[in-house]
Amino acid sequence: MSAEREIALLERAAQALRGHGLSVTMESETTLGGGRNTAGTWLSVSKDNSRIDYSARVARRLTPGTVGSVLARHDHPLDVGCPLPLLITDHVTSPLADRLRANDQQFVDAAGNAYLEGRGVFIYVTGRKLREKQIALRASQSFASSRLKVLFRLICDGELAGAPYPTIAAAADVALGTMRAVVADLQEQGWLQVNGKQRRLNRSRRLLDDWADAYARELRGKTLIGRYSTASFDSWRDWALNPAHLRWSGEPAAALLGCDIDPGVLTLYSDKLPARLIAHEHLAPAGPLAYEKLIELRKPFWGESLNLWGRLDCVPPALVYADLLATGNARCIEAAQIVYDYWLARTFPVR
User: In angstroms, rounded to a whole number, what is the distance separating the alpha carbons of residues 51 and 120?
Assistant: First the structure.
């Protein structure tokens, strides 16, 4: 998000809080920490003689698929007395408001929905809707599928950023005609550093999290092919999978990558389930109300080859990370953090 849009959203959120009878002051500051400059925004919210200090954390377009990554990133401060994180977003639906409150994540949106609690202040407002113009603006700012696909391939192979447009387009399975606009967008967002004909991916955890958020919003729902059930669910490690056609993601991939997690959903990426696997494991379509011990088949979105990294049993860690966060499940969010720590932190550091 550009600095201008972030400031505008902060101001709308502050005005929404004032509409609830609160006094709000906002202050931006740059402090020196860890050898680099770090910018932050603080809000002081008060009513009568009560006051809460917050550290603003801005996140746009909150959805059920992205709330997990938001909760994972917006940790509460370890030191007593430090400002609490206040999630600032454009709109929070009633179900998402309940989930945020259940996870002690305080928030306010541009429509006036809010949850604030502490030091004599309690506000909980849900159900307010965005105006039609706000919804249209939000939709116009979303990533196109082609941009997500290109960014994913660059996340998996950073050296690809310097390749000619036809090479990147073929690897990401996008139209060559979109590449100029895609590169311009990624450069504007700060994810690509361009110097003449040289391009380099600006790797950071923020890049990884922004891609995971956008993937959950814009593309992940389109990848679902079908949901299945089987009596042999718990023996998934013994299934005979051809890595040229099938790769694990989500919870089973996390288990294979070293997480202590007992999968509740088995996520597979492939164009189709082999007839031999269906017959041998007695896979059957799952009913619409089924929600436990499911197999979900998702279509690969990155071209013909599944072989994007060295391992043959699962998709790249960045996609495992995104699929885990998209569940919004606490244990999956914890597993996503472990996947990040062991497989992604060195390449995508916190900055």
Answer: 8
Q: Is 190 left (phi over 0), alpha (psi -120 to 50) or beta?
A: left
- Among 150, 158, 145, which Cα is nearest to 199's? 158
Tally of CB atoms within 10 A around 82: 11
- The residue written with tokens 């940790």 in the block is 75
Helix (H) or strand (E) holding 23: strand 23-33
Sign of CA dihedral 26, 115, 104, 73: negative
Q: DSSP letter at 8?
A: H
Q: What is the pTM of this model?
A: 0.65
Taking only the tens of pLDDT, the chain with its 351 residues reads: 556 567 777 878 887 888 888 888 877 653 333 333 334 678 888 888 888 888 888 887 788 888 887 887 766 554 556 788 899 998 899 999 999 999 889 999 988 899 999 888 889 999 888 765 444 444 434 346 888 999 999 999 888 999 999 999 988 988 888 888 888 888 877 888 888 778 999 999 989 998 998 898 888 988 999 999 999 999 999 998 888 889 999 999 999 999 999 999 999 999 899 999 999 999 999 877 666 789 999 999 986 665 667 788 899 999 999 999 998 888 999 999 999 999 999 999 987
